[in-house]
Amino acid sequence: MSEIHEECGVLGIFAPGVQDVASTAYYALFALQHRGQESAGIVVNNDGVFRSYKDSGLVNDVFNARRLEKLGEGNMAIGHVRYSTTGGGGRENAQPIVVNHLKGNMALAHNGNLVNSYELRSELENEGSIFHTTTDTEVISYIITKERVKTHSIEKAVQAAMDRLKGAYSLVVMSPSKLIAVRDPHGFRPLCYGVREDGAYIIASESCALDAVGAKLVRDIEPGEMLVFTKDGITEDRTHCGKEKKTFCAFEFLYIARPDSVIDGKSVHEARKQAGAFLAQQYKIDADIVVGVPDSGLDAAFGYAQASGIPYGIGFIKNKYIGRTFIAPGQKAREDKVRIKLNVLRSAIEGKRVILVDDSIIRGTTCGRIVKLLRDAGAKEVHLLSSAPAFKNPCYYGTDIDSRENLIACHHTVEEIAKIFGADSLGYLDLSKVSLLTGGDGSGFCTACFDGNYPTEEPTMSDKSRFERLERPISENPKFQSQNESEE
Amino acid sequence: MSEIHEECGVLGIFAPGVQDVASTAYYALFALQHRGQESAGIVVNNDGVFRSYKDSGLVNDVFNARRLEKLGEGNMAIGHVRYSTTGGGGRENAQPIVVNHLKGNMALAHNGNLVNSYELRSELENEGSIFHTTTDTEVISYIITKERVKTHSIEKAVQAAMDRLKGAYSLVVMSPSKLIAVRDPHGFRPLCYGVREDGAYIIASESCALDAVGAKLVRDIEPGEMLVFTKDGITEDRTHCGKEKKTFCAFEFLYIARPDSVIDGKSVHEARKQAGAFLAQQYKIDADIVVGVPDSGLDAAFGYAQASGIPYGIGFIKNKYIGRTFIAPGQKAREDKVRIKLNVLRSAIEGKRVILVDDSIIRGTTCGRIVKLLRDAGAKEVHLLSSAPAFKNPCYYGTDIDSRENLIACHHTVEEIAKIFGADSLGYLDLSKVSLLTGGDGSGFCTACFDGNYPTEEPTMSDKSRFERLERPISENPKFQSQNESEE
Amino acid sequence: MSEIHEECGVLGIFAPGVQDVASTAYYALFALQHRGQESAGIVVNNDGVFRSYKDSGLVNDVFNARRLEKLGEGNMAIGHVRYSTTGGGGRENAQPIVVNHLKGNMALAHNGNLVNSYELRSELENEGSIFHTTTDTEVISYIITKERVKTHSIEKAVQAAMDRLKGAYSLVVMSPSKLIAVRDPHGFRPLCYGVREDGAYIIASESCALDAVGAKLVRDIEPGEMLVFTKDGITEDRTHCGKEKKTFCAFEFLYIARPDSVIDGKSVHEARKQAGAFLAQQYKIDADIVVGVPDSGLDAAFGYAQASGIPYGIGFIKNKYIGRTFIAPGQKAREDKVRIKLNVLRSAIEGKRVILVDDSIIRGTTCGRIVKLLRDAGAKEVHLLSSAPAFKNPCYYGTDIDSRENLIACHHTVEEIAKIFGADSLGYLDLSKVSLLTGGDGSGFCTACFDGNYPTEEPTMSDKSRFERLERPISENPKFQSQNESEE
Amino acid sequence: MSEIHEECGVLGIFAPGVQDVASTAYYALFALQHRGQESAGIVVNNDGVFRSYKDSGLVNDVFNARRLEKLGEGNMAIGHVRYSTTGGGGRENAQPIVVNHLKGNMALAHNGNLVNSYELRSELENEGSIFHTTTDTEVISYIITKERVKTHSIEKAVQAAMDRLKGAYSLVVMSPSKLIAVRDPHGFRPLCYGVREDGAYIIASESCALDAVGAKLVRDIEPGEMLVFTKDGITEDRTHCGKEKKTFCAFEFLYIARPDSVIDGKSVHEARKQAGAFLAQQYKIDADIVVGVPDSGLDAAFGYAQASGIPYGIGFIKNKYIGRTFIAPGQKAREDKVRIKLNVLRSAIEGKRVILVDDSIIRGTTCGRIVKLLRDAGAKEVHLLSSAPAFKNPCYYGTDIDSRENLIACHHTVEEIAKIFGADSLGYLDLSKVSLLTGGDGSGFCTACFDGNYPTEEPTMSDKSRFERLERPISENPKFQSQNESEE
Lengths: 488, 488, 488, 488
Fold this sequence. Notes:
The structure is a homotetramer. Chain A is α+β, with helices and mostly antiparallel strands. Chain A has two domains: 5-247, Aminohydrolase, N-terminal nucleophile (Ntn) domain (Glutamine Phosphoribosylpyrophosphate, subunit 1, domain 1); 267-322 and 331-446, Rossmann fold (3-Layer(aba) Sandwich), CATH 3.40.50. In chain A, the strands form seven sheets. Chain A has a seven-stranded antiparallel beta sheet with strand order 4-3-5-2-11-10-12. A six-stranded antiparallel beta sheet of chain A has the order 6-7-8-9-13-14, with helices on one face. The first copy, chain A, is globular. The two termini of chain A are 26 Å apart. The relative contact order of chain A is 0.13. Chains in contact: A-B, A-D, B-C, C-D. Chains A and B meet through α1, α3, α7, α10 and α11 of A and α1, α3, α7, α10 and α11 of B. β4 (49-56) of chain B pairs parallel with β26 (480-482) of chain C.
C-alpha cells in the first residue's frame, strides 16, 4: 500500500495495415493503468492523418466505445497514461502531445524526467517560444522540432535531440510514416517491444501490455537505443548506447511494475518473491503466520513464507470497489478509509504472532493503521517488514517520492518507527540486496532514492527550484494557476 | 469468477442520539457493495423527519459528500444495495422504499424473494391498489401498511404481515421511533447485528459491514425472529421462530458472502478453505501447483493446497482497474475482456501441472478461456475444480441463477464439460459436503439450486410466470416496459 | 415578467396506426413548455405495451434522440410538462403516472388541482393505500383504479371517479386501447383537440401544440365532457356537462397561455391586445411612447398604443441566452439578474415620457427594478400599467400564486405601490373588464385570485393545511423530505 | 434568422483593487454571448497570479458558481466568447490563450481574422515553433512573445507586433500589471471601453456588456489605437492610427451586434430602423401589415412601418425555449424545427397582404419555410424584404459567411429567388444605403461581403488555402483531426 506513484506509461503500435489500432491501444493502456491514473490519451495515425483524444481520468473513463470509434482505424498509434499529484496537471498536461507542423505531424509520449529541463526551457523561452504545459514532454517536443527544421528526417532530429536531453526518458515518437522508440542512455525507465501474430509491433513500458493484446515480448529497448519502425522494417540505432552506465530504477522491480511484467528477462513477481526470501535471510522471526498487505505486499510475503517455512496466510480482504474516486466523508474520514479498504480476516489472525510484509514505507501514515487493525483482530505480535530499503532521497527521474520532510526514515531510527507504528519489530530489505533481486551481479541499478547516489548530475539550484515548480501541484504553484482540470 | 449475482444487502442503524448516521450508512453499504451493484439508497430519520436518496449505481456513484450532507444528521437510518439483471429495475426499483402515511412514515429495505408475491399482488390490485415498482418490497410494504391501519403498532403490523409472506426475506423496517429487523422463519438470507462503542446498533446483511464502521458483532438474527430497537432498548419477538426448519442458503458461504464475514459463528473464509480441503479429499491429483481464480477461488485453492501438500501459487494477476463500467470495444471484445482482466504469471505456470480452483461453474463461458490462458502460458496439465456442486435449478429465494437452458451442468456430463473447457479433468464439490462446510451436522441449509429440494412450496404456475415476469429484465417484459434507468 | 407559474400541460395522441408518436409528443410538449418547466414525461402505447420516460428538466433536457428512439413507435401516447416550486417535487413527482394493473395498464396526465384531495387521500391511506408522490394525480389514479376493479370499462371508471373529484382537472387517460380526454365540470383549465391530415388526433392543453405538429384545431373539450378515442371513432360523453357553471381561469388569457393559442374560439394575443385597449380607455396618459415588458407585456402594450394613438416602441432588449439554468453569482446577484436579462434601448427611451405595460404585478420585486432601468436610461416619466387586476387571493385550481403575505396588493394602496416602484403612476386593468376580454357577456370566468369569489367550496381547514403541505416545496416540508431531485 | 455567425467577443477588466472580477467578467461575457456560442473563457489576474478556466459551451454552461469561485478575486481579468463552425475548434481552441513565460505571464483574447496568418505561421514553424491550436490568436501570441524577448515592455512588444499583423484584430492583452486594448488600423471589429462608479475600467467588444455590469461607455477604441491600463492610469498610443482607412464591418450594424449596443456613437437599434426606413423608400408596397422575423428582423420591420405608414404587427410567436441544444428528432426534422421555433399569429395574418422583413438572406433555406408559414396561415400576399444587401463574397475578417457555392444570391436573380421562396416580391437594401445607416457620409465601412471590395490585400493563394484549412471545421480537415471537443 505504497504512497509512491510512478509518473507514466507509454505505448506505440505499428500495424501491418490499416486496422482498429484504437481498440488495441485502449487494451494496452488499460494494462498500463497502474503507471498513471491521472490522464490518458491515444493518437491514431491513418496514413498521415492524426486523430487524437486525451483527457483527465482513467483509461476507461476517458475512452468509451464512441470515442474509440471516432479515433477511427489506422496503421499506427501511440498512447499514454499519466500520473500527477492531486489537482496538478489536469487536462492540459495530458499526453501524447501532438505537434502540427509544416515538416509533418509528430506525436510524442514520454515517461521519465529530465534533469536539465529548466535550462532547456529557459533557452527556448528566451528565443520567444510559448509553452502550453508544464511538462518535460513539451520541452522534448520543442527540442526535436528545433532539430527537425534543420535536418531531413525525424530520426535524425531525435538523434540530435538526445545529445541535449539529460535524465530519464523512455519515448515513443510518431511521424506520418514512422514510429520511433527511444530509451535514455542510462535506461532509467523500462521500455520493451513485442510482435503479434498478424505482424503488428507493440512498444510498451511493460510487457503486461503486450500480453493484454496478445503480442509476444521480443526484447527490451536497450539503454541509449533508438528503434525506428517503418514499412520496410525495424532499424536499430545504437549511437548513444554505452555512453552512460546502465542504471535502471530498482523501484520498478520493487513496487512500480506489475508483477506479471518481465523486465530484462526477469519476472517482476519472482523478483519480489526474492525480496521476501532475502528478508527471511535477514530477519529470522519466530512467528505463526506471514501475511502481505494487498496487493503489492503479497509477492514478498509469499517469498518470505516459502523461504522461512512459516505458513503463508490471507490476512486481509480488500474491498474491491475501492477505486480512485472513492470518497471518505465524515470526520474520521482518513482512518475510516483504511478500515473500509482493508478488513482483517479475524479467524486467520486471532491469537497469532504475525509477520506483516509491505512493499515499502514512505511516510508511514497507513502502516500504523494496518498494524492496529491486526492488533484489534487479536494478533499477539506484529512484525513489520518492508520489501524495499528505507527511502531517504527524492527521485529526479520520474518517480514522485515525497520530499525529505515527509520521509519517515529521514527523521527516525528503525526502532522509533517500529514504536510509532506499534509494531513489535521492523525490518527493511538490505540495500545490498536490491541489485541482486534479478539474479545479476549487483550492478545496473539506480538506487538513489535509498542511498543518494544519483547517476547523473543533480539538477542545479535553479534547476531544482524549477523542478519543484514543475512538479508541485499546479494548484499550489504561486506563479501560475489553472483550473482546467475536468474534476468536479 | 462466478456469473451469479446476489440480490441485495440491507442495513439499519439505531444511534444513541442525533449524529452523522448518513456517513455511517455509507461506509457500511460500501462494505456490502458485493451484494448488489445496481442501485443504492439511504433513508435518514431525524426524530421522525425522513430524508432519503437512492439511485441506480454503485454506492460511491450514488453518494458524494454533498448528497450525504443533504441527508443530514439523524438518530436512525436504513440503507440498501440492490442487484438486478441488466437493463431491469433501474432507478424506480431502487430501495429503501419510503411510505408517507397518516399512520406515520415507514421505510423498508429487503433482501430475498417471496414465493407468493403473485398471489399477494393480485389480491392487492383487485382491491384497487396501485404498484409503482415490480419489486417484492413494494408488496411487503403494502401488506404491512394494510395491517398497520388495523392495529396500534408497527411491530404488530410486521408480525401480522409475517403470517402472509412466504419465501425469503431479511427485512429492516424503520418507523419514526423504531427500527425493526426481521428474518423469515427459514432464515434463507443472512442478517446480523452489532454494537459500536458509542452505543449505536448496526443491523446488516453481513458482519463485514459492522467491521467497516467499527461495530462488534453481537449475533445473527434468528430465523423467524423480529428485533425491535427503540430508545428503551431491544425487544426480541420470537413468535415465528421454529415454525419452519432452518434452511440457510449454502451458496452464501460458497460464493455470495464476503470471506471476512462471519455467519452463524463461522468464518466464510474458513468455510471456503474447508471446501478446498474437501476437494482435496475427493480429488487426489498429481500436480505441481494449486492456483485459484481471483478473487473468489483463492480461499478454496488455499484450502486444497494446505490439505494436499501441493504448493499453493499465485497464478494470475488481476487488473485492479477492471470495474463494473469497463467497456470492451472491438470485435474480439469478450475474449479480450478475460485476457485483460486476468494475466497469467507465466514464470509460475510454465511447464507445470496445474490444479485450478474456481468458486463455481454456471454457464461456463469464462472457464474455458481461463483454462486456455494457462495452456498458452505453458501449463502441462490443467485440472479444474469447482468449490461448489453443479448448478441445476433456479433459485426462488433471491439469488439470480441463470435459467436451466443456460446452466451447463443441465446439458452435459462432467467429462463433456472438461472437454469443452479443454481441461484434463474436472471435479465439483460433493453435494454431501456442502452442509458440512461450517462444521455442523449437515442440516440447516438450502441446497435447492444443486439438488432441487425446495424448502417451501414452489411458486404456483401463475406464480412462476409472475416470478419470471418480475425477475426478467423489464426491458424484455412484454407487459410493461420502462426506460427509467439511469443508463447511458 | 410575471412571478406566477402555471402548473402543467397535458397531451394525448391517438394515431391511425403505429407510427413515431414519441417524436410527435416531443414537439407538442415542446410547444407547451411554458406551462411547466420542472419535469417532462412521455408514455408511448404500442398495442398495449407501454414504454415511458420522465424526469426533472425541460423537454429538451429530458428527451434526446436516443431516449425518443427507445420509447419506440406506437399508436397512442400521452405526455406532460409540470411546474413545481423550486426544490419541490422533483423526479418522483413527474408525470404521466403509469399504473401497471391486472385490469390493464393505465397512464394518466393531469393539469389542475383538486380541492378535496386531502379527504380522498386520507380515506385511501386509511384503507392501507401507499402513496409514492405528493401529487393530486396519484390520488386521481387511485380513485379511477378503485372504480375500475368494480366495473367493466375504463371510461365507466373515469365517469364514476368524476363524481368524487372536486376542483380543477383537465385529464388525459390512456388504457391499452383507448385514449380519454376529460375536463372538470367548471372547465377551469383549457383542453382542446385537433386532427392531422393523416387522421391522428391530438389532445392538448393549448392549440399552439396542435400547430407545432401540423394538426388543425377541432374544438375545446367542453366543461364536464369526456371524449373517448378508440379505433372505432370518438365517443362524446356529456353526463357531467352543465352540472356546474363554467368558470374558466381568466388568468389563462391574461398570462399563462401562449399568445398564439386559441381558446374558446378567441386568440389569446387578441385578448391581450384587448386588455391593452381597455387600459387605454381607463388611463388616458399624456406620454411619448408605450413599451411593454418582454415578452408577456408586449401584446397589451401594443393594444394600448393602437387604442391611444401614442407610438409603440421597443424599449428593452432581452438577453435570449437567459434560461432556466442561468446562475447569478456574486453579491449583487438578484439585481444584476434583472439588468442582464433586460437592457434598455437608451436611444428609444431617453428624454421620453414612458408608458410601461406589464402582464401582472404579484410581489412586485422586479417591477421596481424595471422602472429604475428606465429612469437610469433617461426616461422623464414612467407610468406603469398592469394588464391584469391586482392579485389578492390564492388559487386553489392549479396556478401557483404566492401566499397573501407576499402579494403586494394585499398590503399597499395603488399609490403606495407606485411610490415603492418609483413610478409616476400605476394602474391595473379593471376587474369588470376581465370577463369582456374575449368579447363575451362577462360570464364564464373564474376571477377568484382577483376578487375571492371561489366557484367551488374552498378546501376545509385540514384540506388547506393539506394543500399547503402538498404544495409547499418538499424540501421545506417538515414531515417528509426527499432529495430525489436530479439537480446538482 | 440569419445563418451567419460572428466569430468572437472579447473583454477586459481593470479594477481599482482586488475584487470579484470573475463574476463581473461572467456577466459581461453573458451579454456578449451572441458573438460566440462555441466556447467561453476567463483569466483572472491577482497581482500577477493568473487563474484561468475555459471550455466548449455557453458562458452559463462553462461557468458555475464553483468555477467562478475557484478563479478567485483579482484586480484584472480578461474573457472571451468564441464561435466556430460545427464540430470544429472545440475545447483546445477556446480562448483566452495564456502564455507562461520567463518574461512574465501573458493572456490574450482576440476577435477578428488575419489575412497573413499563413505566412506568419509558416515562418514561425520554420524556426521550430510548435502550435497547439489552429487559431490566429496563437499566431498573435507568438508574434508578441518573439517581440517581447527583444524589448523591455509588453506594450512595446504589442506595438512591434502590430507592424507584422495584417487583417482584423480587436485584442485584449493582459500582463501581470497591465491591461492592453488594441484595435487594428482598419478598425474592422468593434471595441470600446467604459468605467464603473467604483473606478473599474471595462473593455468590451460591444457596449451592451458595459451596461450589463453597470459601467458607462466612455468611447470606442480608435482604429489603430492601443490603450494601456495600469495603476497609474490610461496611456493612449496612437502610433498606428490613420495608417489605414477606417473600414468598419457594416454587417456588425446590420446583424451581428446587439440592438442595444452603441457603436461609434450610433445606436444599433436605430441603424436597423433606418435600414427599414430606407427599404420603405426603395420599395413602396401596397400592403396591410408589416411583420419582422424574430428577433433580428423586428427593428427593420418597425422602421419600415414607421416610414411607410403601414401598420406594424406581431406576426410570429417565437418559442423561447428553443436554444442551442434543441434537438429535432424524426424524419421531417428540419421542417419541424422552423415550425416549432416560429408559430404564426393567425389572427393577425389571415386575409392580409403581408410585408415580411428579415435581417439578411444567405443560403435562403429558412426564408422559404417562413413564407410558407404565412401562406398556410392565410396571408393573401407575402412581400419579403432583406434589411441587408445580397451576400456574394466571403469575409476574410472574422465573419463566417458561407462559401460562394452556398450563397443563393451568387446563383439566382432576385426574381428567381422570390419564386424559390414562394414570395410575391423580394427586395434587398440598396448597397449605397449601407454606409448611410449611421448618418455618416458614406465612408468608413467594409462592405466586401456585398461588393467584393476588400480593404486589405486578399490572402495569397497559399494564404487562402491556409485560410480555408484553418476555417474549415477541423473534423473535415484532412491534415489534422482532433476529437478534443467536450461534446457527447
